[in-house]
Amino acid sequence: MNIQEAAKILDEAAMNAEPVEQLSLDTQFTIDEAYEIQRLSIERRLSRGEKFVGLKLGFTSFAKMEQMGVHDMIWGRLTDSMLHFADAELDFNKFIHPRAEPELCFLVKKDIDREIGLDEVEDYIEAVAPATEIIDSRYKNFKFSLEDVVADNCSSTAFVVGAWQNINQDLSDLHMELKINGEVKEEGSSKAILGNPWLSVTNASRLAVAAGQVFPAGSYLMAGAATSAVFLEKGQRILTRVEQIGSVGFDIK
Ligand code: OOG
Ligand code: MG
Questions:
Q1: What whole-number distance in Å separates Cα of residue 251 and Cα of residue 174?
Q2: Spatial strand order in the sheet of 175-180
Q3: pTM for the whole thing?
Q4: Distance 17 CA to ligand 2 centre (A)
């Protein structure tokens, strides 16, 4: 397949909020090629003036792997056009079929340019915040293979970050919930994120740095969803609450 052409198709699908057929339906490509398509599609955004602001991990929880029928951790790139803060208003019409998931976001303190271990994460991370990721697969019916979703930058479209909190607390078993219009739609524990969300930092350092993607001081790392994702509709208020860490809400207009 033509990797540049694939990157263009996915980039334009995101820009126009128009879904496309899964790339894997008519051509076979490898995971390495999928990451190259992802890199090139992000290059297109950067060349239009967007800025790289961090990374996300996906399929760090069994709930998500089961929901989407895939079985491997994946990572994607975040740009400033995806970044929002508490009480943001997001425009439903900019999305194809958005879904929300409750997450934790880490703020990088020191450039992560090599694989780091669990005993080092506190030297590299400044703070943690409650966050919601909005994913919006560019593929029709939100259906994809692992290679498809990696090429599509892991369905990244937006993320909403709450107030930063100190990291000197145990993050391994915090209750997390996603509320829509005041009603709990999904709930679980931060344990669902790889058994311990700090492992998202070590895994991101392993995967991204091996692929040549450093994440600098000041960048964000979305740790992956603790629960399945929920489809969104116009007019909703979405809130992620994490025990001890706090809440973050936004509106979809
Ligand atoms: C892929 C993105 C998965 C997560 O937190 O597990 C993800 C998708 O489900 O479309 O962001
Ligand atoms: Mg996610």
A1: 25
A2: 88-90, 246-252, 237-242, 175-180, 183-189
A3: 0.97
A4: 19
Fold annotation for 3-252: Fumarylacetoacetate hydrolase; domain 2 (3.90.850)
Domain spans of the chain? 3-252
Nearest atom (ligand 1) to Cα of 144: 10
Question: What is the signed CA dihedral for 157, 160, 164, 167, rounded to 10 degrees?
Answer: -50
Reported as type and span, the H/E element at residue 64 is helix 62-68
Return the ligand 1 atom nearest residue 65 CA. Answer: 6
- Counting ligand 1 atoms within 8 A of each CB, the residue from 10, 56, 59, 97 with the most, and so the one to mutate, is 59
CB 130 near ligand 1, within 6 Å: no
Which residues are found with C-beta within 5 Å of the ion, ligand 2?
133, 225
Tens digits of residue pLDDT in 4-46:
999 999 999 999 999 999 999 989 999 999 999 999 999 999 9
Write the CA distances from 41 to 65, 133, 149, 167, integer angstroms: 24, 20, 13, 33
